Amino acid sequence: MPDLLSMELAELEAWVRACGEPRFRAEQVFRWMHQKGVLRAADMANLPGPLRERLADELEPPPVRLVETLTSRDGTRKYLLRLRDGLTIESVLIPDADRLTLCLSTQVGCAMGCAFCRTGRMGLKRNLDPGEIVGQYHAVRHLQECAPGVTNFVFMGMGEPLENLEGLLPALRILTHPLGCGISPRRITVSTVGIPDGLERLLRAVPVSVTLSLNAPDDATRSRLMPVNRKHPLARVLETLKSLPLEPRRRYTMAYVLIRDVNDSDAHARKLVRILHGIRCKVNLIPFNPFPGCGFEGPDEDRVLAFQAQLRSRGISAHIRHSRGGDILGACGQLASREATFLS
Question: I need a labelling partner for 54 at 20 to 30 A (CA). Which of 112, 127, 274, 305 fits?
């Protein structure tokens, strides 16, 4: 069965022609699905009946369905979403002043095995296809809490985005297409552990913002926290960033999860300054968000401020980011796609 929600416009045109319809019908269907978020064929009023019948066969039930919502004290909402094969994923909606950010997943689980991340303990079940990635937005965009309109998208949910470029890149093109969701690439951020070849493919395909999950200034500490560092050492990842073209007035974001007595000393901060020399970037300092059985603790506020001061005194733009949704296991590193999370 063709996955219409995964199709880019040219692919949809070919499908429409195969159905015996003129090519312009593809634009109409594309607009209904992605611009208006309408996935019920009967509601696509300007389409002929036979085409709506074909669409109903392909689009219903939708590839991503909202199962449950948890709401944090700070207004963050975590959504449990069920896929057609019964597997579940999580997405997070984060309201903040003048922006509304939707955090999307790219995989069911994750193979990276980062020691501080709850998702990594699931292992990798499978990649999401483009329709399942975009479908997370469509599953929640008409909810009351999304009424002002989602302004920003971050690929910081479940999975390593650059390990699923076959799903991610078409999804990004659908999200940014003027006849699709119409989202500016500047309002989309992809977070990655740092896959050099994937970084090159991503940034040459779609000019989105990139956040590197850095978390340590040396290979020994980073390999302890992030096994992927043994395959893609820190120096190679940073050299890749230096080599890629970066538009004027844009910079990379380095995400640094601060873990007590692991990577939070003044010496770590000084090393961090040295390795970031020559890279146009800012650093987001994220105090570790604990979860059951994690074995780590976050530093106290004084240690976080001292680490920030070390960076700022040496000319590094450093900001403290206190994650939202921690009380519902919806913060950075806490997603796990377990329905028990919603029932507890």
Answer: 127
